[in-house]
């Protein structure tokens, strides 16, 4: 936990997420917070797909001193939903409610492109990669390819991993080992060597 006193640490995660819209279940939020708390510098945390901040706030609550947290979301329509910049406004309001704006570095670009360019521009090994952006099979496949190098030592948490498009994407990578399943999320790591 970070040394500075913040209200987010005084309340349960359930209370923090109360009223924050989204599809991220409480059990999954608890697991994401726990995974985030295991990441130590020099490793960083990357979130793909933030919407209005349920997963973002879960990570903030588990975030340890000195760990950088990047939240990637271009606010683009996908999966039949009209995601748009207005969601970003609500996201910022939700972060401000808990005074955690300075813990999160937002990146408004498609996650695949950020992944391919990670080493060039960010150069920090990823310890936790949360994947909940565009769930089409091709996009998830592209993201896994783009993030394999920067997140080679990371835990990967895939949301909506029970959906047929994500199942089809994950099936293409026999080096992704499943560690556990929580509701509709799957926690994986890349097999070494
Ligand atoms: C299911 S929502 C994320 C929900 C969020 N994790 C939560 O806890 O509420 C999917 C998000 O992915 C974003 N998105 C769409 N295309 C994307 C892309 N190429 N890269 C990253 N995010 C993307 C959308 O803007 C949307 O906010």
Which class best fits the helix and strand makeup?
Answer: alpha/beta
Helix share bin:
25-40%
For the biggest β-sheet, the strand order reads 3-2-1-4-5-7-6
Distance between the termini: 33 Å
Please report the first level of CATH classification, the CATH class. Answer: Alpha Beta
CATH architecture: 3-Layer(aba) Sandwich
Give the averaged pLDDT, no decimals.
96
What is the string of helix and strand elements?
HHEHEHEHHEHEHEE
Given the C-alpha coordinates, what overall shape results?
A: globular
The major sheet is characterized as:
7 strands, mixed
CATH H-level homologous superfamily name: Vaccinia Virus protein VP39
Structure report:
The protein is of the alpha/beta class. It has helices at residues 13-17, 26-37, 54-62, 85-97, 111-116, 118-121, 137-147, 164-170; strands at residues 44-48, 69-72, 105-107, 126-131, 155-158, 176-182, 185-190. The longest helix is centred in the middle third of the chain and has 13 residues, at 85-97. α7 (137-147) links the parallel β4 and β5 (155-158). It contains 8 helices and 7 strands, in the order ααβαβαβααβαβαββ. The chain has a single domain (7-190), classed as 3-Layer(aba) Sandwich (Rossmann fold), CATH 3.40.50.150. The structure holds S-adenosylmethionine. S-adenosylmethionine binds next to α3.
Quick structural summary:
It contains 8 helices and 7 strands; from the N terminus they run ααβαβαβααβαβαββ. The protein is an alpha/beta fold and 193 residues long.
SSE layout and pairings?
Layout: H1 13-17, H2 26-37, E1 44-48, H3 54-62, E2 69-72, H4 85-97, E3 105-107, H5 111-116, H6 118-121, E4 126-131, H7 137-147, E5 155-158, H8 164-170, E6 176-182, E7 185-190
Parallel strand pairs: 1-2, 1-4, 2-3, 4-5
Antiparallel strand pairs: 5-7, 6-7
Bound molecules: S-adenosylmethionine.
Residues 22-24, 48-52, 54-55, 72-76, 78, 83, 87, 110-111, 132-134 line the site of S-adenosylmethionine (SAM).
